[in-house]
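Reminder to self: tokens first, then the designed residues, so the page reads top to bottom the way the pipeline ran.
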């Protein structure tokens, strides 16, 4: 490995036999494709794996870890308490981000279940070299078993186990095997079904999906700020608190250029916020978070499954934009109505009998 150019810290918390095996066999395998870590090996790459002692021994014996050592300085650290997996990962990311900033390094905080298209890392490095400070991605979930089955059937692994898939092909496989959990992000659908507005999706038929995401994954960070403040996970409000300008943040908007996705089992579930059609509750969820996250929704991300692009993309993009306008108008009207409602009820409650007060209260709640 060469030691010139900018310095990168790649940080991966992973533990448990099944998870570490999947990390090495699939996530690391994709990171070692020609356009990823090998393509940026002219820089100093520090690869930090946080795990348990037993999992470390298993990983160190894996051929792909030895292959990684050709391009990166590998360190293993004891992960400590893992009772709360999200809290454990957040502590590791927070310390790593602060440490990278203090040493003027670029950091790549990775989930262990991410699959990268070939060329992702080289494209990211070019963006950082051009002065960008943050690269954000959607990283949508795929249903692990059928997704990996198709990867293997397509002969995307070489004889050494390295996984190399072009962006368009990987996005196409994801579209065919997207996780059923993502159904609750589609704006169009049956009213009354579970809905979560952190991601908003619109189908473009077999051609792909347009996504507008409240929470985006900050997958590459190059910032001098030596604090890493965020509420629960790094996709909450970390970027909002870094003090970077809008011009310094890149959201990957075209899956044909860069694409990655996360693998999850069929039983993975993160809960829902409301039912589809309860747009008031959806807006309240969005409005309760950082305004920065709300601005993320203004960026339409196109995930293409086919080479051909028809007029449907522009039509669906306009449809998605109009939905956001409706949400903002509804939210503003709700705020305008709330105060008068409170004043009216406060005045009437002093002069009306109790049954009539309750009836008016129920009526005002419906408006």
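Designed residues (367 positions):
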């Amino acid at each position: 490995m060469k030691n010139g150019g900018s310095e990168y810290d790649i940080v991966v918390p992973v533990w448990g036999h099944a998870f570490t095996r999947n990390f090495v066999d699939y996530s690391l395998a994709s990171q070692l494709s020609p356009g990823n870590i090998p393509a940026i090996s002219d820089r100093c790459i520090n690869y930090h794996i946080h795990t348990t002692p037993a999992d470390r021994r298993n990983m160190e014996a894996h051929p792909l870890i030895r292959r990684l050592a050709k391009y990166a300085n590998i360190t293993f650290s004891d992960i400590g308490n893992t009772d709360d997996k999200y809290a454990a990962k957040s502590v590791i990311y927070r310390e790593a981000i602060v440490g990278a900033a203090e040493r003027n390094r670029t950091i790549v905080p990775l989930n262990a279940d991410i699959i990268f298209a070939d060329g992702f890392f080289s494209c990211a490095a070019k963006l950082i070299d051009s002065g960008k400070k943050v690269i954000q991605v959607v990283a949508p979930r795929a249903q692990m078993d059928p997704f990996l089955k198709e990867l293997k059937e397509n002969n995307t692994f070489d004889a050494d186990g390295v996984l190399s898939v072009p962006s368009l092909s990987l996005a196409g496989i994801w579209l065919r095997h997207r996780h059923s959990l993502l159904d609750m992000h589609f704006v169009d659908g049956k009213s009354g079904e579970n809905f979560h507005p952190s991601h908003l999706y619109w189908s473009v038929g077999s051609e792909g999906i347009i996504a507008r995401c409240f929470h985006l994954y900050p997958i590459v960070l190059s910032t001098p700020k030596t604090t890493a403040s965020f509420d629960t996970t790094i996709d909450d409000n970390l970027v909002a608190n870094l003090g970077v300008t809008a011009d310094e943040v890149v959201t990957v908007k075209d899956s044909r250029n860069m694409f990655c996705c996360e693998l999850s089992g069929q039983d993975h579930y993160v809960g829902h916020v409301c039912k589809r059609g309860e747009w008031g509750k959806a807006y309240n969820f969005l409005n309760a978070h950082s305004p920065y996250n709300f601005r993320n929704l203004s960026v339409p991300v196109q995930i293409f499954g086919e080479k051909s692009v028809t007029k449907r993309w522009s039509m669906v993009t306009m449809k998605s934009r109009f939905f956001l306008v409706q949400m903002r108008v509804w939210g503003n009207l709700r705020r305008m109505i709330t105060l008068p409602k409170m004043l009216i009820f406060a005045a009437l409650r002093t002069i009306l009998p109790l049954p009539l007060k309750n009836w008016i209260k129920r009526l005002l709640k419906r408006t």
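Residues 7-310 form one domain.
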